[in-house]
Task: inverse folding
């Protein structure tokens, strides 16, 4: 047991909390001590909610967004435009776009972007399932809504090449209202909403 901790139980809690992104050991210790100071029922509720999240959250079989059932609420909604698919990097991007209130279509979560430096190739992302979905469901428009980074642009172009020969399919991208290098989740809702509404044909980005 680390000598700076008076209890192996506290040490275990700090170790697990410090595995969370952005949480160092000092912050983990503050969190653990805060939990100890609160009423026992609050700590139990926190633990049960995490266990429930881990055991019962699944991924939508269509778009790969998080869900509590086979289909996420977006894919299961008859009020959404299922002919328009917005391709995003992760679940946080779905939440960011939904918060704008400017998009009525559905989503496809890739689970990352192509990044050779990190050992992430196309086969590790949900790109093949996107292609199959577009062909099978009569999708009319695919919106490429990835971050304006080298990895995002590489992934956009790869997807464009995979989908470019499908007849009557429009492939668009977010208007470049977002600064280069910005990630979707850190873009303010007004800018992101305008970028969706003012989206442009993807081919125009390299034909101009």
Result:
């Amino acid at each position: 047991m680390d000598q700076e901790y008076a209890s192996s139980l506290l040490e275990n809690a700090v170790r697990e909390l410090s595995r969370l992104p952005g949480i160092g050991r000092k912050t983990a210790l503050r969190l653990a001590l805060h939990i100890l100071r609160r009423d026992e029922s609050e700590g139990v509720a926190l633990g049960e909610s995490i266990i429930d999240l881990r055991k019962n959250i699944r991924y939508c079989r269509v778009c790969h967004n998080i869900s509590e059932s086979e289909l996420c609420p977006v894919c299961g909604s008859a009020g959404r435009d299922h002919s328009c698919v917005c391709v995003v990097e992760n679940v946080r991007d779905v939440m960011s776009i939904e918060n704008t209130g400017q998009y009525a279509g559905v989503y496809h979560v890739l689970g990352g972007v192509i990044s050779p430096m990190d050992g992430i190739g196309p086969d590790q992302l949900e790109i093949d399932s996107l292609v199959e979905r577009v062909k099978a469901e009569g999708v009319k428009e695919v919106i490429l809504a990835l971050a304006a980074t080298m990895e995002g642009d590489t992934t956009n172009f790869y997807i464009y090449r995979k989908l470019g020969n499908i007849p009557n399919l429009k492939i668009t991208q977010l208007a470049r209202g977002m600064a280069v290098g910005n990630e979707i989740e850190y873009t303010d809702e007004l800018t992101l909403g305008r970028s969706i509404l003012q989206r442009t044909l993807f081919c125009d980005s390299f034909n101009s």
Observations:
- Helices lie at 8-17, 25-37, 40-56, 91-100, 127-137, 150-163, 189-197, 204-207.
- The longest helix spans residues 40-56.
- The domain at 80-207 is CATH 3.40.1360.10 (Dna Topoisomerase Vi A Subunit; Chain: A, domain 2).
- Strands lie at 58-59, 66-67, 81-88, 105-109, 141-144, 170-173, 200-201.
